[in-house]
Amino acid sequence: MSDKSEMGEFLRSRRARLRPEDIGLPVWGRRRVPGLRREEVAHLAEVSVEYYVRLEQGRAEAVSEGIVDAIATALLLSEDERRHLRNLARPPRSLSRAGEPLRPGLQQLLDSMTHAPAYIVGHRTDILGWNAAAVAVFGIDFAELPESERTWMHLVFFDPHIRAITADVALVAGHIAADMRLQASHRPDDPELRAMLRDMSERSPEFREYWETHEVSDFQYGRYVVHHPVVGDLQLDYELLDIPADPGVRALIAYTAAPGTDTARALDSLLNASTSEAERCS
Question: In this model, does residue 96 exceed pLDDT 80?
Fold first, then answer.
């Protein structure tokens, strides 16, 4: 699917979620379908109805930044949604170089984080490096996974162990689909990402349902609750730290627990026990 066609679908999905009263328009009579009409969006964005129709049909060329911003304002788009629309209207050039080995310095950084579960991901949710704390918390040896399955998209939608220990798997799955929607528009010339998303849509009705909502978000932080079979529930706060120096790498994601909480004590107990076991086996 072309970026212009995706832009049309995205605009229609954002238009459908708004009501006239949301943007201060009067409501006259009953509406056959929910959402704003095309002419209402065109009026608010100060473009012709004909031009806006061409945008939704994927027939408009050379869309200016000013028009993108005007339509984003008319549709009350979030900052992430604005970025997505800008990507679709004016596709950026990707700099991704997949398949490169992780720099030793990055793995050393992960290994030094003995009490913070952490891993490094690529632009397709591929897990490129991890530390022992992440293995202990998630209960999975990432090194034993086939490379095609060593992605958070695969693990969250298909892996029974990860789905069982994730407290709100529907929330996490929705987050991944929304994040990948933004990544896809940001990296339009990444054929492997496109192929992965097509494969996910074909294999997973659950992913396809989230994907077709056209939700877009760039999740930089949040909370992930793990049902750990040994120490109980772990309420972990995560931070996503971008790594712009490596084109094939997206970010380091690290998990911590608020000091003095049950989770902090449970995490310390789990990681201390894991370290002791590793020392005995070495």
Answer: no
